[in-house]
Model the fold of this input.
Amino acid sequence: MRFPIVTFLYAFPAIVLAIPATQQSTNALSLPSPASGDISLPPKPSSPVLQITCDANRYGQNLRVPSCQNAAKQILTSDLDMKFADRTGVVSYDISLPYRIQSSDGLCYIQLVLKEGAVSGNTTSTLFGVAAITLIQQCAVKYGYGGSVSQIGGDNNLEVIVSSYKPNVKCNRAPSPPWRSTVTIFAEMTATKNSEIFGPAGRPDVDVSLPFYLKASDNRATVKISSNGGVATSSWYAIWEAVNSIAYMCITRHSKGAGRATKIGTPGNINVEFFDRTPVLSQVNETAENLPAVMGGLVASIDDSGTPVNQAMDPSEVTVIYGNGSVLTLWEPGSAGSVLAGNA
Done:
């Protein structure tokens, strides 16, 4: 009698490993193909022991190893200690969470997450890269599974996930915004996981009125969130996943153009489109003359006429309250994310 793969996976839901970390540079390490076997690297005696779990149920099976390798190659090597924290919290950070690096085909991603109970975590990109590479080798190459790894070094409050993903993204030949401008969108946009109702303005049951725009403060990178009609239930996290996918699949540092993601939310009628709002202009200087409004060093949100919308008067609040009741956080111009958001 032949058993379906799901029976095997539920009978053996996870493979747990303990692997000594190495000091190998992520830029120098060449990952093998699935048929080429293990990477033999001498462990560094003082390195942390990586705690690896290969779990097809949570992180996917039949991962495309070259896709995961492609994602891993994008991790830079640096021994600079960086602090990671959730962008919606009160803890300061160098890099906001969620933080995800995705393959150019979108089928595999590597993501840093906080360990349960932690509010922030410190590590270096080198340690992050070593953990990701080891995880890919032990789970994706050997078993075809995704997985997670903890005890990656630093303060050990962070874990690394490698997982499969199925993006509904199509790149196009429209001009793409600069990568630096693109990063400001997905690095600091809202990414909460609670469900909200997206739909046409004026409906009492709608939390987020569509179309909705996210705009980089340099007036280049712009995301339009729209609907094919009617309302849909989604989360800002799902929107963020789509934005991140377009960025890594279409824009990146070697641009293939702009792009569009579809079939988001339930019943799948939300679309996300990334484009360059002013492709014929040079990079816009962030000054009071060419930004619509500046308050205490914070960029205020605007509508298409250039009018600020219900600005919060205390700059320490760092928020703008829209007419539909939604509250969005803004960031300092020149920081990792200076994002204008609203219904344009």
In short: The chain has a mean pLDDT of 74.
